[in-house]
Design goal:
Elements: H1 9-17, E1 22-23, E2 27-28, H2 54-77
Antiparallel strand pairs: 1-2
Length: 78
């Protein structure tokens, strides 16, 4: 059995190709997958957020808040 924190490449491939793990084909949702940023369906496109993982969603929210803060600071200086 795979270690949930470090799944085998075969398990990762199976999770990625399973259409049941993709909501509307774009949002990754897999409760078994504990990775914060799993690769997108097409790995060349980068990573996505696992919306079934609370820590992954928190990371996403903090990243968005950080970028909004940067935009706010830049806009307030002009």
């Amino acid at each position: 059995m795979d270690n949930p924190d470090n799944p085998s490449p075969e398990t990762q491939e199976r999770w990625s190709k399973d259409p049941n793990n993709w909501i509307w084909g774009i949002f990754y949702y897999n409760k078994e997958d504990r990775r914060l940023l799993p690769p997108k369906r097409n790995p060349i496109m980068g990573w996505t957020v696992n919306f079934a993982n609370r820590n992954s969603v928190l990371l996403f929210v903090f990243m968005m808040l950080f970028f909004l803060l940067i935009v706010f600071v830049i806009e307030s200086k002009s």
